[in-house]
Protein: Pimeloyl-ACP methyl ester carboxylesterase
Amino acid sequence: MLVAHSIGCAAPLLLAPRRPDLIRAMLLIAPCCRPVPFKPLLLLRMAMTPLIGSAIRRQMTTRWPEMIFHSAVRTSAGPNPVPEYLAALPARHIVSSPSIETMAAELSAFNADMAALGHISSELPITVVFGDRDRVIDHRWHSEWIRRNHDQALFKTLRGVGHLPHHVCAEVCVELLERLVEANMSPMDNRRSPVA
Structure:
């Protein structure tokens, strides 16, 4: 059972047609999965520019990590308040040079990778959760693409929720995951003894 969020949903979606034997079901939370229109993202692009990129990354990670982190978390959580445990995360560990490079690499490969994805087997159960007030992605853009590529996907749209349904409405996400687990357990799974 795979659970993924945002751009992290690309990995299980790309894995599914290649290794169907590994995946029994998926819960995708606010998935960013359809190729997206070009966005300037000037600061990120400048941070990856040869020669000056390392200097820009150094400035970002030494001078402004708290500002960058808290701005990103507010945008992701909005319109909902940022949970205290997310606000308390150490910004300098998250806004680091390797994390900026990784994010840039993911974004540069994303469109080509997802454009190459074909139809996903309708036998693979997929449940999708979106917030209807998401400020990071357009949930309609991505849900339309999922419907085209998987005609059996089940959708749940949460009213008044942004890009973090698993933080804002954790109980709903847990319930959807439990339903997936129950519906896709094999008789062998039921015979396993609980782990101590």
